[in-house]
Amino acid sequence: RPLELALNTALKANPRVPHLDRVEVAGSFPLQLLVAPRPAANRVVLSGDAAHTVHPMAGQGMNLGFYDAVALSNAVQHACETGEDIGSPVTVQSYCQSVQFQTLPMIAATELTKFVFSSPCITPARSAVMKTMNALSPVKQVIMNFGGGEHIQPLQTTVGCEL
């Protein structure tokens, strides 16, 4: 019960936290991947956790939501600039293609990370691979850049778009 004791002590010590009678021990949730088979239909698009949830192991869920927001903004901006309806099949398809391009590699990487860190038979090899990757600065830099979203096109300012 050390976690419960620490949380209750912290709550009592901080007067800005609303009063709670007690804190129960935190629950756990299975590490799972959920991806909507169709991220869009009939003028509606899914983004963020509504479109795909990844386990928090690699810490990329929020980044994927940001990618979706950029992809949707870019699709809407392009539609506005070309006079296309923002809910047209062309705009929706543009969003879907961009989202797949951005999120599928990250989803694959997080699933690989889950597999590598949850498979006991891989433990010796995992340690060797992690040490090798850590020693290879260029490889480590590429992985960090990808995880940090360096491959994402920056959002351009929308100009002249009446929504």
Q: How would you sum up this structure in a few lines?
A:
Helix content is 54%, strand content 5%.
3D structure, described in words:
By secondary structure, the protein is mainly alpha-helical. The protein has five helices and four strands. The strands form two sheets. Strands 1-4 form a two-stranded antiparallel ribbon. A two-stranded antiparallel ribbon has the order 2-3. Helix 2 packs antiparallel against helix 3. The longest helix has 30 residues, at 89-118. The chain is extended and about 60 Å long. The model has no long low-confidence stretch (mean pLDDT 78).
List the helices and strands and how they pair.
Layout: H1 2-13, E1 34-35, E2 40-41, E3 44-45, E4 52-53, H2 61-82, H3 89-118, H4 123-135, H5 137-147
Antiparallel strand pairs: 1-4, 2-3
State the helicity in percent bands. Answer: 40-55%
Overall pLDDT, averaged?
Answer: 78
Overall shape: extended
Strand content: under 5%
Order of helices and strands: HEEEEHHHH
Task: Give the key terms.
163 residues, two-stranded antiparallel ribbon, mainly alpha
